[in-house]
Known about the structure:
The protein is α/β, with parallel strands linked by helices. The protein has one domain (about 5-270): Vaccinia Virus protein VP39 (Rossmann fold, 3-Layer(aba) Sandwich). It has helices spanning about 5-30, 45-55, 70-80, 120-130, 155-160, 165-170, 180-190, 210-225, 230-240; strands spanning about 35-40, 60-65, 85-90, 105-110, 130-145, 190-205, 255-270. A seven-stranded mixed beta sheet has the order 3-2-1-4-5-7-6, with helices on both faces. The model has no long low-confidence stretch (mean pLDDT about 90).
Amino acid sequence: MTDTDAYIRELAESFPLRESILRDVIQALQLSPGSRGLDAGCGIGLPALLLEEAVRPDGHVIGLDKSRDFLLHAEETVKMSGLSGQISFKEGDVCQIPFDNDEFDWVWSSDCVGYPTDDNPQPLLKELTRVVRPGGSVAILAWSSQRLLPGYPILEARLDATCSSLIPHVKGKRPRSNFLRALGWLREAGLEEVTAITFVGDVCVPLSEDIRTALLSFFRMLWGEPQPGVSEEDRAEYQRLCTPESPDFILNLPDYYAFFTYSMFKGRVPQ
Length: 271
């Protein structure tokens, strides 16, 4: 199995944990039935299925990603769902979106645009804005926090401080480039009616097999790769708590509870 195949598997396995919260986000967007939208940085296409539900019966969702491997997986998923007429995909970079001006009623980007970001998110946001008609909406969102190790807040804080899925991308960046500063980004991109909202998802026992698998996948994605800043003691504690073979595997707790958040920033293209 290649690294890409392994990552695709983890994205698919982790989706059940994110699905309910993404449904809440999409409901808050109040997308119009029959509208045409762009999922920028669509990955393996699973959020596109939820977006399509919101624009039925006559809407259309186009997913854009620069990874051909992701798109092949997404196309197969949509084909199996019988939605090839409502969802399509195109290979391309969100930095240079291969569509004309004003082509979409809305655009959304989940865990992609601005997260992790470079020091200048403005070109990306201006590209998103360019392809949306006047009066249409632009929304960017990302996983923004979690508490997945109940009873071990200090350990989790230390693991987060060296998070293998984030730190390599944000270390040394300006505070202004942090995703939670996106209100300012959207205003600078010329969007109006800019808003921010955070959605909370949670899980508790009894855990379904899908949710157990999703949580285990998140453990690996967040903290699975050893980082220089993690002490040997913290690494051992992580393995004790987050390895299914361990007698202390945290998902076996009879009172396990965890929560996580997604933050969304949204604006409207001026008329």
